[in-house]
Amino acid sequence: MQFCTACQKAMATIVIMDLSDGAVTGSQHLCQACAEQLGVGQPKPPKFSAELLEDLLGQKGPRARSRPSEACSGCGMTPADFRSKGRLGCPRCYEAFRGELVPLLLRIHEAAAHRGRLPVPAPAAVVSEDDGRTLTDVRRRLEDAVRGERYEEAARLRDELRRLERGDAS
Amino acid sequence: MSKPRRDKQPEFRPGTWLLGTGPESDIAICTRVRLARNLQDFPFSPRLDEAEAHELYRFVTQRLQKPGLPEALTVLDLQPVEELERTVLVERHLISRELAGSKKPSGVAVDLEESVAVMINEEDHLRVQVFAPGLQPEAAWRRAERLDDALIARLPMAWSEEFGFLTSCPTNTGTGLRLSVMLHLPGLVWSEEIDKATNVAQKIHLAVRGLYGEGSRALGDFYQVSNQVTLGRDETTIQSEVLLAVGRIVQWEREVRSALLRGSARVKTLDRVHRALGTLERAQILTSEEALGCLSAVRFGIEENLLDGFEIPAVNRALLLSQPGHLQRHSKELLKPDERDQRRAQLLREVLGCQR
Questions:
Q1: Which of these, A29, B135, B246, B334, could form a disulfide with B28 (CB 3.0-4.6 Å)?
Q2: Complex confidence, ipTM
Q3: For residue A12, what are the CA distances in angstroms to A1, A42, B109, B187?
Q4: Which tens digits make up the pLDDT trace of B123-167?
Q5: What is the pLDDT of residues B236-254, one digit of tens each?
Q6: Measured between alpha carbons, how far is B99 from B122 in angstroms, rounded to an integer?
Q7: What is the pLDDT of residue B273?
Q8: Which of B5-19, B71-85, B229-243 has the lowest mean pLDDT?
């Protein structure tokens, strides 16, 4: 046991080793508090911020702000109906109320994109010619980035998502 | 499914719930997979008018009856079914309380073992349910997946790459999968650890509910643990999360049970079990609540080898028959609540073989 190299007060409980080409080139002994402060603590269960994702993905984007939802062309459900019931009227409502739906899905599931089975086997669209950068894929990576607290990457992905949503080529 | 009977309720065998078999069946009674599915080109069920609901029901049942389905299902048209029979179906977990209360064209397609039930025109157009005894998420899932494949092949389902399967309520969007395990947790309840156990499950986004009774009160120490998140996690992840949490709860229950049977706690536990049996053997009036409590204690006593001469399937049967729908159906008449309590006491003595 030795004292924390950062604060010199508490007992060190975490050892950070620097590795270079498989060899240890240096080490740091830290207490839990200092390790957390330096962002190198024990991996904690990911603290997922639904609000944060909501900010990144949700209504605050320029697209959603400029185009408030209209009634669904499939079943005639109005945005007010949707808001009061919290239910969708028909499959097309998912597109019609996307702006309000995505934040709702994030609150419920802490995710806004599907993973798992689909009625068609492995749709080619997921791995498109564009390096797999479909809306869904980018959205998933954005969720993962926020979960992993990689906020710079999240911001970059958000911008990419916005571009894709606008239909820009790059 | 050569000749679907539509007017008469088929005579079912005891049902997956009552077998008392399967892995961890001393604590995990039954595993259920539920898939929410909807058709393209129809509004979701709550927004269908009478004619559309009828059209959807006709379309789905027609497609369900085409040969080649991996399950032999019998379609039961619910519209002509009376309230009491609907209650019986709810108590057997074949239809939901919501569907039982619906007056719209609706139905349920069931297999003879009562291990598969497809509700038609519930909140979603289709609610596929597959049951497996004990703790068997994977087996239940595989069977559900096979049936789902067949349904997808014959019905145009509503889905998108982004949101997965599209459902009426956003709480089911994505996989549409709700995986539940029904647990008998008398040890955790008696030693007042149940709140801690449910908190653990809730922390990883699993819902814990009482199986019987309204609201948060769990009668008879029966609980249901299920995933809440359906979007952003695939089916395998959902299964392993539920399995992990349930495995921990089962282990916890076992530890608590063995503590209840050690040292000074043992005599109290024995007293509780034997008092419950005494009540079932002698009581002339039994409310549903008291019956569930006593049956839970007796079930515990059998599982822990504290009682001789009783079998788990008999207790499971008693649990089912003590519920209002089954009780009245068994008595072949509608009974007032106090008549039910008398009849329940009598019937439970018969079922458990302790009639004097």
A1: B135
A2: 0.87
A3: 7, 13, 63, 41
A4: 999 999 999 999 999 999 999 999 999 999 999 999 999 999 999
A5: 999 999 999 999 999 999 9
A6: 5
A7: 97
A8: B5-19
Are B94 and B17 in contact by the 8 Å Cβ rule? The answer is: no
**Mean pLDDT lowest for which of A8-17, B61-70, B122-131?**
A8-17
Strand partners, B68: none
Helix pair B137-154, B235-260: axis angle to 10 deg: 150
Judged by CB atoms closer than 8 Å, whether chains meet at A136 and B161 is answered as yes
Q: Is residue B296 helix, strand or coil?
A: helix
Nearest residue of chain A to residue B125 (CA atoms):
A90
Say which amino acid occupies B285: I
- Paired with A11 in beta bridges are A3
Residues of B in contact with A74 (CB under 8 A): 43
Determine whether the interchain pair B162/A139 forms a contact, defined as Cβ–Cβ distance below 8 Å: yes
Residue A108, min C-alpha distance to chain B (Å): 7
Chain B interface mutation, best of A57, A77, A114, highest count of B Cβ atoms under 10 Å: A114
- φ/ψ of residue B320, rounded to 5: -70, -45
Give the type of residue at B315. V
Helix (H) or strand (E) holding B209, with range, is: strand B206-210
